[in-house]
Amino acid sequence: MKEREKYNGLDRPISVYEVHLGSWKKPGKKQELDFYDYRSLAHDLCAYVKEMEFTHVELMPVMEHPYYPSWGYQIHGYFAPTSRYGTPQDFMYFVDYMHQNGIGVFLDWVPSHFVGDLHGLYRFDGTALYEHEDKRKGYHPDWKTYIFNYGRNEVKSFLISNAVYWLEKYHLDGLRVDAVASMLHLNYSRNDGEWIPNKYGGNENLEAIEFLKELNQEVYGRFPDVQMIAEESTTFPKVSKPVFEGGLGFGMKWMMGWMNDSIEYMKNDSLFRKHQHNKLIFSIVYAFSENFMLPFSHDEVVHGKSSMLMKMPGPFNQKFDHLAVLYGYMFAHPGTKLLFMGNEIGQTHEWRYAEEIPWDLLQFEPHQKIQTVVKSLNLLYKTEPALYEKQFSFEGFEWIRSGDWQKSIIIFKRKGNKLKDTLYIICNFTPVVYENFNFGVDLLGQYEEIYCTNKAEEYLTGKKQVSFKSKKSECDALPYTLRVSVPGLSMVAYKKVEVKKKLV
């Protein structure tokens, strides 16, 4: 806990493994309501997360909830870790064990709505105490749940106290706040006539906005080394900017636009991706307007959206190569990272909350390879300062070539605090191999191919990578040219090698 700021800061690598504790692994019978307890999960999950080089886990809500298929998002016991997996002390053990092994723990937290079960908060004293009496403000049509009345000081006190409780009593490293967009907009999922404008005639929920500001000020005032992360899918401004700058005060925000665009781009056959090139490069236009986390979360692998692997085009075996370059692009792109469990092994079917992850897929080589790619990307992210030191700043990114749409190739620099750490990244989104491929670099000298998604195993084993020498010839408006071979469907990273002069 004393060293938390060293691994939880915005200038540190934060790669998150999102987990639903009830379905990550199951005991022998593997039935829906058979679970491992917090203590058992702590040991098994921690070992796996460390092996895969993730820095944090994010748990889908563990607060007590009556309806298991809600995945924990419809809460009635805000101050109680669910007894499905053990006692509060068992959950404390879980977090402490993760911390002892250098793994941070984020927790999903749901202040946006609550269930209508009579033994919960709904009409707590016979009146609309926590919610609004008018259903146009107090009822959520999507989830058939009730919306907190953020205009009441008592409700704000309840929720802020609850956030502080989880951070204080369980030593959590941050909260991912669910469904923030639904809190900010009075007309969220509502048609005309189904919502009431604010006092200025707008659709902003002014009380919710003030609540979120107060929440983040209180949390960061007490726990300056945690992270508050917003799941917010709209263009609402300054979500992750400080309150004193007119922001909501979150530390990070999920980059839903990047996620949607990159998936839509990858769904195209590689032959036709050149016509969707704008989806690939548009995210950089706004990438530094917020502190973004790049998520491939549980929401992308449910409700008929298919698994990450099966979103990819082409024959089954080639899908893994498409997924590998997508993950390579994700880890090279500015921002922190989040992958939902199963994404890292190329799960073939959608996530099923009642079943464990299909670990038996790892007996097959393609699934082993994609797992190796994810592990190697995590290690690359953790060991290359250019990928994290300035991940939320324009100073950490520079296009070299963004308009090569006909080849479906993008080239850019990632920069850290030191010039020597600069990485040159090439992403090739077609199966075409480009021999004798030229691109511009800043300096004369030797450059090493330090990473390639197609050679993930070699990277993990420390095998010496191939090197190239730049020549004095302008390319991409840079003074020197590097000539390399670019594999198909790959993300490749190059770095200038420091050549030590021999003493005479």
What does it look like?
The protein has 504 residues and is an alpha/beta fold. It contains 14 helices and 21 strands. The strands form five sheets. It has an eight-stranded parallel β-barrel. It has a six-stranded antiparallel sheet with strand order 13-14-15-21-17-18. A three-stranded antiparallel sheet has the order 16-20-19, with no helix packed on it. Helix 5 packs parallel to helix 7 (206-222) and helix 12 packs parallel to helix 13. The longest helix is centred in the last third of the chain and has 19 residues, at 365-383. The N and C termini lie far apart (50 Å).
Summarize this, please?
The protein is of the alpha/beta class and 504 residues long.
List the helices and strands and how they pair.
Blueprint (H helix, E strand, L loop, with lengths): L3 H5 L6 E5 L18 H14 L4 E4 L3 E2 L12 E5 L6 H13 L3 E6 L25 H4 E2 L4 E2 L6 H18 L3 E4 L2 H5 L21 H17 L4 E4 L21 E3 L1 H12 L9 H5 L1 H4 L5 E5 L11 H4 L4 H17 L3 E5 L24 H19 L13 E5 L7 E6 L8 E6 L5 E8 L4 E7 L3 H6 L5 E3 L1 E5 L2 E9 L3 E7 L8
Parallel strand pairs: 1-2, 1-12, 2-5, 5-8, 8-9, 9-10, 10-11, 11-12
Antiparallel strand pairs: 3-4, 6-7, 13-14, 14-15, 15-21, 16-20, 17-18, 17-21, 19-20
Helix pairs in contact: 2-3, 5-7, 12-13
